[in-house]
Design brief:
Length: 277
Amino acid sequence: MIKVFLSTQGVEFLFTERGWRKVKPGHHLVQLAEPYLQAWREHEDPEPVLDAVDRLLPTPFPNLEAKVRFLEALLRCVLVLVPKKCFTDHLRKALPGWPLYHPTARHTFLELEVAQLEEDFLFSVLVTLLPLWKRCRVHPDILYPLKGKKPLLGWLVEAPDIYHLASCEALLMVMQGIKVLRLCPRCLKLHHERKGLLCRKCRGEREREKKRVRTPWRRFFNLLAQDKRRGKLTEEQIDHLKKVAREKGLEEAKKERTTLILHGFPGRKNRERESRN
């Protein structure tokens, strides 16, 4: 039996031989849903995706159709839990067969059952995952994670395997409104980064791309920063040059920069004389 505690605040603990160990929220849900996402990203045709699903879930499902229904139910829960901003054009191209809109979360089983009448996006989730939920022990509990820390109120889940556990995690996170998952629009990786939607790897690649692209405007602003460090231009002069660049163009700003470095700010000496008098 695998034992997990999921708090109402989105903190998750996994019970190991050494005691409770903190893991990312939806730890087992991500382990199963992410390879399915990557399979859709790498293959446009469904046949390679089905082969990947068959390899991903060797047991305990009787046939391939049951495996696909299970993974689609998990992925529907994921699409409820990630922010709306994750639904980019890149994601729609990667998953052409998916109705990628942001459905309304349902917080109780009763609301999920009512969704059948409304033909809701989440109804198939309940039909597929509820039988696995019933084979697990799920009950409210209080966990004392560390000495001196406040006790956590949440749910204690005891499941026979990772498939049952991922089902319980998905349903609990949907019902409790624990929306801490992020879906990277570039690589379709599920992550928990709070800085934007991109995962850490894609965010680093984007930063490197920005540094590689040296436009004339970027070169000019870098040159102004260099002049400021070397004491050639003051803060007032740099602000003036940026204003000239925006209003009159880059070439005019470059000419005025050369004039400023050679002769100083226009009218500066006159203002200094007036202030002395």
